[in-house]
Amino acid sequence: MVKLRLKRCGRKQRAVYRIVAIDVRSRREGRDLRKVGFYDPIKNQIDLNVPAILYFLEKGAQPTETVQDIFKKAEIFKELHFNQTKSN
């Protein structure tokens, strides 16, 4: 099973996160399948690769709670719903 979750980067006391698609059995800093975004909680900066995120969500990847909140802010689920209704 694949999850979309945060991978910690940056220095001490200055964390930034990559949003990655990763196998459930991997550890937090383990090898990821693909980098799909970036999140800086200090600057509140979000950078997302929307086509890659939609691809993994359509294939059944589950976002963690934090990543799901980030996606809600960026309205990714509206695009996913739009793509599903468009293809039907």
From TrEMBL:
Cellular localisation: Plastid, Chloroplast
UniProt xrefs under InterPro entries: Ribosomal_bS16, Ribosomal_bS16_CS, Ribosomal_bS16_dom_sf
Pfam families from the UniProt entry: Ribosomal_S16
GO MF terms, alphabetically ordered: structural constituent of ribosome
Biological process, per Gene Ontology: mitochondrial translation
Keywords: Chloroplast, Plastid, Ribonucleoprotein, Ribosomal protein
Cellular component GO terms held in the UniProt record: chloroplast; mitochondrion; small ribosomal subunit
Family as reported in the entry's similarity comment: Belongs to the bacterial ribosomal protein bS16 family.
Name of this protein: 30S ribosomal protein S16, chloroplastic
Originating organism: Lysimachia coreana
